[in-house]
Design a protein that fits this description.
The complex is a heterodimer.
Chain A lengths: L8 E4 L5 E6 L8 E6 L6 E4 L13 E6 L2 E6 L8 E9 L4 E4 L3 E5 L1
Chain B lengths: L2 E5 L2 E2 L6 E8 L8 E6 L5 E7 L8 E3 L7 E6 L4 E6 L8 E8 L5 E4 L3 E4 L1
Parallel strand pairs in B: 2-11
Antiparallel strand pairs in B: 1-3, 3-8, 4-5, 4-9, 5-6, 7-8, 9-10, 9-11
Classes of the chains: A mainly beta, B mainly beta.
Chain lengths: ~110, ~120
Amino acid sequence: SYVLTQPPSLSVAPGRTARISCGGDNIGRKSVHWYQQKPGQAPVLVIYYNSDRPSGIPERFSGSNSGNTATLTISRVEAGDEADYYCHVWDSSSDHRVFGGGTKLTVL
Amino acid sequence: EVQVVESGGGLVQPGRSLRLSCTTSGFTFRDYAMSWVRQAPGKGLEWVGFIKSKTYGGTGEYAASVRGRFTISRDDSKSIAYLHMDSLKTEDTAIYYCAREGQQWQFDYWGQGTLVTV
């Protein structure tokens, strides 16, 4: 089965840039989606199809995907960005959906 | 406005069954695949399974951890998806979320979740 690997945690100072990675075999050939989940809340889609933003998501959120790594970039990090972030792909070989283990973003 | 609401969670004994409902509105339900995702206490997101729209056969796929025990169905006339859970185990304890799948298989709308405790 397809495996996505994320760092468990990342700490960033306010105003700086956070880059959260999501590793997978030839992930650059897949469409990657990213979700933000705050404590006690349902996940929210922040990036889909590698780099598209749903309406209402700030331009500070961007995504890229190439080779074996996809990246969610959050520019000018704010205290309100503190959350867990998950990457997700569709594995065409099994028709299964796969999540990464999640990255806890802490804003210092 | 798209709305997704789960219901049916609760406390159940190991080995018993439970059915969750995912009631939707604000979009043409029959045109979309629907997935179930769960989150055990303090853990990450785990995809449980999905059901295709009838246009694509209405069939489903399941994660290995639940295959043979869980079944997803849909009632397009009521815009509801169901998760039938049999032979429940303590490790099935989790918040269960229902999510709509977009054109790129992204989960674009989620419910608030329903807690199942086994």
